[in-house]
Structures are given as C-alpha cells and as structure tokens.
C-alpha cells in the first residue's frame, strides 16, 4: 500500500500505521489494524510454474511499481537497478538484455516502436523495442512513479506533484504540460495516465478524474471521484491512484475514500456511482465488477445494478493488489508475497501460493496464451498455469 507524500518531501510512514490512521481518523496513540493472518484453506486449484527468471533487484528497497509490459509474444521488464529485459512470454527465453547507466523509478511503458522508462534522477528515457538501445532522454521537473503511457505520437508522464507532461515520441521534445492542485498530504502513488488518440485521462490526488485533449493538453471535462471531508489531512485523502477502465464509451474509475463510478467519456457526466474506497483499478469479469478495497477486502458487485454480491474479508489489511480474472477465478497478491485464488461466484478462497518473500505490489497479468504473469518485489518473474488440484 502506498506511503504518503507531503509537499515536496516524502513522508515515509510505516504502511500499516498510516493505513490505520487513514481509516480510523484517530490520534497516533490509538491502536492500528493488524493484517489478517494468512488464511488456512483447503485448496481446489493450484498454480503450476511454466518458467521463472530474476529481473535484477526488482523494486530494490524502494516503494515502486515496475509493472512488466505485456505485448503478447514478448514481455519487457525492468528493475530498479537499471536492468531491462525482453523475454519471450511462452518460454522465458531472453531476446535481449540492457543494463542502463541509471536507476529506474517508473515503467515499463511502450508503443509499437519504443519503450519508456523514468529514471531515479527524473529523466524520461525512450528505448528501442528491437534491441533496448537508448533513443533519447529528456529531463522532467520532479519524481515520477506512474508508468509512462503512449499512443504512438506522444508519451505522457504524471509526476508526484500533480503535473501531466506530454512529449513527442520521435524527438522527446515537450509538447504540452498541465498542472493540477495537489493537497498538502497525498499517497505516494499515482495512476498511469490513459492515453488515447484524442484524449488523455488522468487521476489526481485531489480526487479528480480529468480528460485532457491529446494534442494540446487543454481540459475537456473533469469528474469528482472523491470529495475531501473531515478535520485532518489524513481524513481528507481522496487520491485516485488506479488507472480508469474503458468500457465502450465510458470510463470505470474508483478512488480512495470516494466512489466507484461509470463516467461518460464524451462529456464526463456520471452514469452511475456507489460508495467505495480503493487504491487500485477495478476489474471486470463474468459481467461483474471486482474491487480490491483499501482495507484489503475484496468486493464483487453485479454489473447490471451494482448490488454487492460478496465480500472476502479474510485478507483484511494485507495490502492486496489489483485483482485479475482467470477463467472462473479471481487472483490477488499481498504484502507478504502470497497469491490468493478466489471463486468468482462467491469469493471463497480456492487456492494459495507463497511466491515472493519481499511481497507483491504490481498486479498479475493474463497473457495471450491464457497463462498468468507474476512479478514480485524482489524481481522474481514467473509465468504460471492454473490447474485443478488432483
């Protein structure tokens, strides 16, 4: 779960203590919530390893979100110490390897021609997808944690102090910049901007989802996902740190201490909403909506009327990742590196695997061949197949 960001300095509070304060709205001498113990279950399914490899030092000892880029046949993965790999998704064969002369803070983003990373010293870097050659590098005003996103013409980054910047994919020259108002206190996380041919969607720490014109950066519309309430800055946190999900002509978005909402892409009008709190993107499967709540509970809502179908509360305060749908199951990771497998139908726990002692922060990804890609905080990257247990 993200830490906190205050002004230009980072407030690195203990994660669980901070979260307890967020929910309780209480003084620091009151007890905070303990994470639920690892559930004991009778598993009916298991994850069978197809291949595995180590990607440098992973996130190192830093609070990063270095999500691998899945392009179908190839995976691109980076580590905090500057190692970048192109790997065949089917068998784990390394196609090329690059050791950068810089530490990596955000990535991997990409389009058909290039990959995009942000370095620790706040530079945006473009690499060739063919061999990892550095094509250009341009300085940024401040730190970036969210993965750069591109539509092939521009690449967009979002800084931790609320700036959205667009650069030419060919030259690295800045094409526009948008500055938002950032609260005094915010989460140390940011939603990767969603970059289309005509519009960029960006979520902010002030609880707003904003649509910007891709060619100019001019605001098109804004929607309030969360409204700050309460007497303290902790109570007033309303960060939108999960990337919106596009459903035809609408965007599905959720915020911290805010709501889950479907918004018209054309004008930003609300189609529907309900109260929710999450730091991750929602997930769709079997006609329903699945949310990893900020307190670790996993919730399922019926897509047709948003009625709550079930809540899995045996993972409370375990800092669960964004869920991923795998056939009839829903999978999440947690801060101790466990992968939990739930039934889509009722949320019951059907399987479990201890994957990475350093924990899991980025969500698993479904590959084109139906297998599951998991990238742990230590840099362990593995592809699994889900099987019924004998």
TrEMBL record:
<dbReference type="GO" id="GO:0051205">
    <property type="term" value="P:protein insertion into membrane"/>
</dbReference>
<dbReference type="InterPro" id="IPR002372">
    <property type="entry name" value="PQQ_rpt_dom"/>
</dbReference>
<dbReference type="InterPro" id="IPR018391">
    <property type="entry name" value="PQQ_b-propeller_rpt"/>
</dbReference>
<comment type="similarity">
    <text>Belongs to the BamB family.</text>
</comment>
<comment type="subunit">
    <text>Part of the Bam complex.</text>
</comment>
<keyword id="KW-0472">Membrane</keyword>
<keyword id="KW-0732">Signal</keyword>
<dbReference type="InterPro" id="IPR011047">
    <property type="entry name" value="Quinoprotein_ADH-like_sf"/>
</dbReference>
<dbReference type="Pfam" id="PF13360">
    <property type="entry name" value="PQQ_2"/>
</dbReference>
<protein>
    <recommendedName>
        <fullName>Outer membrane protein assembly factor BamB</fullName>
    </recommendedName>
</protein>
<feature type="signal peptide">
    <location>
        <begin position="1"/>
        <end position="20"/>
    </location>
</feature>
<dbReference type="GO" id="GO:0009279">
    <property type="term" value="C:cell outer membrane"/>
</dbReference>
<comment type="function">
    <text>Part of the outer membrane protein assembly complex, which is involved in assembly and insertion of beta-barrel proteins into the outer membrane.</text>
</comment>
<dbReference type="InterPro" id="IPR015943">
    <property type="entry name" value="WD40/YVTN_repeat-like_dom_sf"/>
</dbReference>
<dbReference type="InterPro" id="IPR017687">
    <property type="entry name" value="BamB"/>
</dbReference>
<keyword id="KW-0998">Cell outer membrane</keyword>
<feature type="domain" description="Pyrrolo-quinoline quinone repeat">
    <location>
        <begin position="81"/>
        <end position="312"/>
    </location>
</feature>
<dbReference type="GO" id="GO:0043165">
    <property type="term" value="P:Gram-negative-bacterium-type cell outer membrane assembly"/>
</dbReference>
């Amino acid at each position: 779960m993200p830490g906190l960001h205050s002004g230009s300095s980072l407030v690195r509070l203990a994660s669980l203590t901070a979260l307890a304060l967020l929910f309780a709205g209480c003084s620091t001498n009151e007890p905070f919530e303990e994470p639920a113990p690892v559930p004991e279950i009778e598993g009916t399914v298991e994850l069978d390893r197809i291949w595995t490899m180590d990607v440098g030092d992973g996130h190192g000892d830093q609070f990063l979100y270095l999500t691998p880029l899945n392009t179908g046949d190839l995976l691109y993965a980076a580590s905090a110490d500057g190692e970048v790999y192109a790997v065949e998704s089917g068998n784990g064969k390394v196609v090329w390897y690059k050791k950068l002369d810089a530490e990596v803070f955000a990535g991997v983003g990409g389009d058909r021609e290039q990959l995009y990373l942000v370095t620790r010293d706040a530079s945006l870097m473009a690499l060739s997808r063919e061999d990892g050659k550095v094509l250009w590098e341009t300085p940024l005003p401040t730190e970036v944690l969210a993965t750069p996103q591109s539509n092939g013409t521009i690449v967009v980054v979002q800084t931790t102090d609320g700036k959205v910047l667009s650069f030419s994919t060919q030259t690295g020259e800045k094409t526009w910049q948008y500055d938002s108002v950032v609260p005094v206190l915010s989460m140390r996380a940011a939603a990767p901007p969603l970059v289309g041919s005509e519009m960029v969607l960006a979520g902010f720490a002030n609880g707003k989802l904003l649509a910007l014109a891709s060619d100019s950066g001019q605001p098109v519309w804004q929607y309030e996902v969360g409204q700050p309430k309460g007497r303290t800055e902790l109570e007033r946190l309303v960060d939108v740190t999960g990337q919106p999900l596009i459903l035809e002509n609408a965007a599905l978005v959720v915020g911290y201490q805010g709501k889950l909402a479907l918004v018209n892409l054309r004008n930003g009008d609300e189609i529907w909403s309900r109260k929710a709190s999450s730091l991750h993107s929602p997930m769709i499967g079997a006609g329903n909506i699945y949310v990893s709540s900020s307190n670790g509970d996993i919730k399922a809502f019926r897509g047709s009327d948003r009625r709550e179908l079930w809540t899995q509360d045996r993972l409370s305060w375990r800092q669960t990742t964004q869920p991923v749908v795998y056939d009839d199951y829903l999978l999440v990771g947690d801060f101790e590196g466990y992968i939990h497998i739930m039934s889509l139908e009722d949320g019951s726990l059907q399987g479990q695997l201890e994957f990475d002692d350093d924990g899991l922060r980025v969500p698993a990804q479904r590959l084109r061949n139906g297998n599951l890609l998991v990238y742990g905080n230590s840099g362990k990257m593995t592809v699994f197949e889900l099987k019924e247990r004998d």
